[in-house]
Amino acid sequence: MKFLVRLATIADLPEYTNLLQETYKNVYPNKKIGLTSECFSEEIFNTSDTQEYLRSNLLVNETQKCWLAFINSELVGSITVVSREKDYELRGFYVKVKFQGKGIGKKLWKLVLDYTKAKDITCDVYEHNIKTIEIYKRWGFDVDKARKTFFRHWPEWPEGVKAESIYMRYKVKK
Fold it and tell me: Residue 99 pairs with which residues in a beta bridge?
């Protein structure tokens, strides 16, 4: 399958919002913790706080890169990596469900590896997102046991709904 990968621009915000909203709605709901697809509605993804966060993921500068993958003109994947003092933080790594398993995620991951050669890479993942955790493990990540789990609660979610998250770390091979 042919796809194009390029650096993001702020003009990509509407498509990026749609990509993340669709992906979250399809992947993250969990009845056991009360996290429903409504928690990831279009309205929630268009609140000012969420838009500000998504806009921040699209920045490209000397300390942050965001690559987007397109098939024809459809945005189907994204990955953002931010340089921090001691490591890099992986954020916004998504591939639309119907395009997973076609090499898009691997291509985006390779761009990050090429960019982050000198420092470890960390990320946080919803603990119930087993598929993503397993993919990260296959790619060399381990659960970062030095960092405690934490609970994420978006202000727009119903009272009491919170998703436990874990940290993972990819150690640079020296």
Answer: none
